[in-house]
């Protein structure tokens, strides 16, 4: 296998300006546009030896390769987001040739256009809220418990203090989510992250994505900062603006002779 395939990053309406010269995609390739019926797919050439179905399946088990490919994919989508509202496709969406890409644009044209119209001028913001890890209180007067009863009393105080702090953090998370939902056009709430897997300290109380008109992003960010940035019981993590991955339900149909894979 020494040929080239076409790796597709996103579908967009015709771009108002070309991508910056320095943008590089997967395998260091320069992305370019394949046009069809008023749509365009942003693609780059990738080696068949890496992206044909069998080698790709093996590569997807290689975390280092997967991370490098995901970063390159995201770099192209980020560059597009600075110019327009792209409809990102899943990682490693690959077609045999440009004709296959055009067939996908033809087959999915109605869905692509409807989704692009719905998302036009909008970006995605991610918000995570974590309860700050509880700190062990210092022993009274720096001394050990005088008795078993004193030990149990201190332990009850510690448990009550942690429970109260968690309840306060959960209430702030609910308040923040309600306020942000009122400012967003659409919301996706995801399961809380497992701290053992994410390696992020603190209990994850909110893990959500918000679809926000681009011109209202400053107001949205300000609301996040006012409600959560300085509260001692929580840590608020704001990411974005992103292409609206969470709200781009359309996917590329008609992939005859092509394959794609996704990671979350």
How would you describe what is shown here?
The relative contact order is 0.18. The strands form two sheets. Strands 2-3-1-4 form a four-stranded antiparallel beta sheet, with helices on both faces. The protein has a four-stranded antiparallel beta sheet with strand order 6-7-5-8, with helices on one face. Residues 250-258 have low confidence and may be disordered. The longest helix is centred in the middle third of the chain and has 36 residues, at 148-183. The chain has 264 residues and is of the alpha+beta class. The chain has two domains: 4-120, no CATH class; 123-244, Alpha-Beta Plaits (2-Layer Sandwich). The chain has eight helices and eight strands, in the order βββαααβααβαβαβαβ.
Class by SSE composition: alpha+beta
CATH architecture classification name of the largest domain: 2-Layer Sandwich
Number of helices: 8
CATH class of the largest domain: Alpha Beta
**Rg of Cα set:** 24 Å
What would you call the quaternary organization? single chain
Q: Strands across the major sheet, in which order?
A: 2-3-1-4
- Extract low-pLDDT stretches: 250-258
Hey, roughly how much beta strand do the residues contain?
A: 25-35%
Biggest beta-sheet profile = 4 strands, antiparallel
